[in-house]
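does this look right to u?? uridine-5'-diphosphate version
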Amino acid sequence: MRYDYLIVGAGLYGAVFAREMTDMGKHVLVIDKRDHIGGNVYTEDTYGIHVHKYGAHIFHTDNQRVWEYVNRFAVFNGFINSPVANYKGEIYPLPFNMYTFNKMWGVTTSEEAAAKISEQRKEAGIIEPKNLEEQAISLVGSDIFEKLIKGYTEKQWGRNCKDLPAFIIKRLPVRFTFDNNYFNALYQGIPKGGYTKLVENLLDGIEVRLNTDYLDNKAELDALAQKVVYTGPIDAYFGYKLGTLEYRSVRFETEVLDIPNFQGNAVVNHTDRETPFTRIIEHKWFEFGKDDLGRDIPKTVVSKEYSYEWKQGDEPYYPINDEKNQDLYLKYKKLAEGEGNVIFGGRLGEYKYYDMDAVIEAALDVCSKELKK
Ligand code: UDP
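got this back:
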């Protein structure tokens, strides 16, 4: 066998695993069925703007080890994500903070805002929130739920807010201070030169074969390595034999506009139910003029995001971690544990709504365990 590890998928999990093992003297081969590396963090240059081809990614972490790790492979630009919500032409700052509460209710102090929320929670009769709707109302009240959460969430997930797990809405901070930073994280930014550059640096000197589908050529590829690291969908690995896990997929409508500034912000969420897309990304603002590509490009690239139910053959994006899917995932996980020489990792391999920092941490942890064996 020529390799110690065959790594299936050149996204963040695969690239970090490949880097670590290579640095420890192991021989690895990375394959990907796409014609590029980077997985869904892949960025592509259009008129000097790094376009996030598979959706916007903003790196943020509290984990010092992960932050130091990624800084070995990229310079981060200090971008702070401050999306705004557009509800039928009314603009609200996100995440939910004193600016949002002031715009919604005219309140100016945290006591007034907290009182408003508590009054609306009581009116809704919520004591112990059991689903996303109840969790949202109990965190921010019913006005914000109706205008900024309900429509967006139902478009994004194609499900009623009562049928979705509460944890999804807990991704968003709720603050009683004037602070539009979308993340509660010590470190945040976008790699200068785009994410593709970061992954290129991770994979520096490592053999990568693109346009190579693992499941279509499994026997032949398995014969090349002692062990496999599989970052594709776990149910696809097993031929969907226990059923398919559900995902939301996303279609991007990307346009180049001959104007320097379309919406004045990287992310604008359209939170009403009627607008068919969830958000518009204006990619140049991720660079925030700190990159040498700057603000003065006379063009801009914008992507509208349309969320839809995944079916076989589509790109899987968001795992739907409700009870039904979670139960099915655990059955696949059991099968996976029986595959002695295969490590399942990453968003698709673990069917998990993973942030980038957590993916990197998981890959580093699994590498350490492997090396101790
Ligand atoms: N969300 C919302 N309104 C918004 C933004 C987010 O209701 O304006 C909810 C929605 O359910 C979404 C979840 O919060 O799926 C998590 O949002 P996040 O921005 O973390 O999603 P991602 O960027 O991963 O798509």
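The chain has two domains: 3-77+187-244+320-372, 84-169. idk if thats expected tbh
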